[in-house]
């Protein structure tokens, strides 16, 4: 494991030691272990697009994963080395209240399939509704954050990258979660979290925006909360998170350039989804990223409408983002997608997707593209 994984393990062990002081007795006969997994084999090809070169990529090209920088290039033909992955998650249950969970993920753009620990946390159930957790978890910025790479959880090959993608996607800290019935068949899921994350060499920053020069991204003093109301047909979710943003480029001559110096940042999100009558499904997310000092503002959304017939699901989705700042630089993209999913059974899904993406950036970027994707996705 890399140094970040070791740090996670140290943090989880520390948290485990702290929670072990809680008034519960761990006996060998109470302990149990369970595990689950997920995987996908995704192949895609850029059909056409803008002819240009951006950073290390020869375009026509398109970015479909911002966290690990998954980019498809037309000259490479069919590629299965950008989004294919496998993940395993294990939970050691000490008793009815106390457990520890870890998730290991292997994917091509993470140091050539080198496993990394994406989750490592301990949980203590206060009662049937309230749970305390500490360690490393994904930041729940989006509706699909907790199962972003579990493809059987959503209709597309991948959730719209125009919406899903920041340099920091996890936090080291603690959270308190609530889940329970509230009124008239509605349930409430809520979460409050706090922590930080320091990415020494963020692929998002280093590869996409700083020409391969190692760039450090740090989100500190993170405080966030979300609440989701659902009744089996409708679900609505609101989220807000505030943090301090640092970004430092480690120049090749040994000097440091501070790009962001603890800039106060707020991210807000709203989701409204429908799974109801006449087999119609609707997916929507509306988010905003706003930073005070830099003037950076990102507005991004997705809206998808689909139809489910037996084991088939068809989905049409539009997504868009636009970023502005105090500088004249404007970054944006708008995408129309058509996705088709076929469920072999409850654990296997075959998917196809066509994306037509228009680049609205006022400086050279990835450009326009048309992408065709096929994916086999499973959870077990």
Commentary on this structure:
With 380 residues, this protein is mainly β. The chain has a single domain, classed as Porin. Helices cover 6% and strands 60% of the residues. It contains two helices and 20 strands. The chain has helices spanning 3-19, 203-209; strands spanning 32-49, 52-54, 57-59, 61-65, 70-73, 85-93, 98-106, 116-125, 130-138, 170-183, 186-199, 215-230, 234-250, 256-275, 280-291, 297-309, 312-324, 331-345, 348-359, 369-379. The longest helix has 17 residues, at 3-19. The radius of gyration is 21 Å and the shape is globular. Mean pLDDT is 92; it is low at 1-24.
Helix and strand pattern: HEEEEEEEEEEEHEEEEEEEEE
Number of domains: 1
CATH topology: Porin
Helix proportion: under 10%
State the gist of this model:
This protein has 2 helices and 20 strands.
Keywords:
2 helices; two-stranded antiparallel sheet; 20 strands; disordered N terminus; 380 residues; globular; 16-stranded antiparallel beta barrel; Porin; mainly beta; 60% strand
Topology:
Blueprint: H1 3-19, E1 32-49, E2 52-54, E3 57-59, E4 61-65, E5 70-73, E6 85-93, E7 98-106, E8 116-125, E9 130-138, E10 170-183, E11 186-199, H2 203-209, E12 215-230, E13 234-250, E14 256-275, E15 280-291, E16 297-309, E17 312-324, E18 331-345, E19 348-359, E20 369-379
Antiparallel strand pairs: 1-6, 1-20, 2-3, 4-5, 6-7, 7-8, 8-9, 9-10, 10-11, 11-12, 12-13, 13-14, 14-15, 15-16, 16-17, 17-18, 18-19, 19-20
């Amino acid at each position: 494991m890399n140094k970040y994984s070791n740090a996670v393990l140290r943090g989880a062990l520390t948290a485990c030691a702290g929670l072990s002081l809680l008034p519960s007795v761990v006996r060998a006969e109470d302990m149990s272990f369970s595990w689950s997994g997920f995987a996908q084999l995704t192949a895609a090809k850029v059909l056409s697009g803008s002819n240009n070169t951006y950073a290390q990529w020869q375009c026509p090209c398109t970015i479909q994963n911002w966290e690990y920088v998954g980019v498809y290039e037309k000259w490479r033909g069919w590629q299965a080395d950008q989004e294919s992955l496998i993940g395993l998650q294990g939970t050691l249950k000490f008793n009815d209240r106390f457990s520890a969970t870890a998730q290991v993920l292997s994917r091509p753009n993470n140091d050539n399939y080198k496993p990394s620990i994406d989750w490592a946390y301990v949980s203590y159930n206060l009662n049937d509704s309230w749970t305390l957790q500490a360690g490393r978890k994904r930041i729940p910025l989006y509706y699909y954050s907790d199962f972003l790479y579990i493809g059987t959880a959503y209709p597309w090959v991948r959730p719209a990258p125009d919406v899903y993608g920041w340099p920091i996607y996890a936090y080291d800290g603690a959270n308190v979660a609530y889940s329970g019935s509230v009124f008239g068949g509605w349930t409430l899921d809520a979460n409050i979290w706090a922590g930080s994350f320091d990415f020494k060499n963020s692929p998002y920053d280093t590869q996409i925006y700083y020409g391969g020069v190692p760039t450090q991204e740090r989100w500190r003093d993170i405080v966030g909360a979300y609440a989701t109301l659902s009744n089996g047909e409708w679900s609505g979710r609101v989220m807000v998170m505030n943090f301090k943003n640092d970004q430092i480029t480690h120049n090749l001559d040994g000097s440091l350039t501070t790009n962001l110096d603890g800039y106060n940042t707020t991210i807000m999100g709203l989701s409204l989804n429908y799974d109801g009558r006449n087999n119609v499904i609707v997916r929507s997310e509306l988010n905003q990223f706003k930073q005070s000092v830099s003037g950076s503002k990102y507005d991004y959304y997705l809206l998808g409408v689909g139809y489910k017939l037996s084991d088939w699901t068809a989905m049409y989705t539009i997504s868009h983002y636009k970023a502005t700042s105090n500088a004249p630089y404007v970054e944006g993209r708008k995408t129309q997608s058509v996705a088709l999913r076929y469920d072999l059974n409850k654990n296997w899904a075959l998917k196809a997707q066509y994306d037509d993406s228009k680049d609205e950036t006022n400086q050279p970027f990835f450009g326009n593209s048309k992408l065709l994707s096929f994916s086999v996705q499973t959870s077990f």
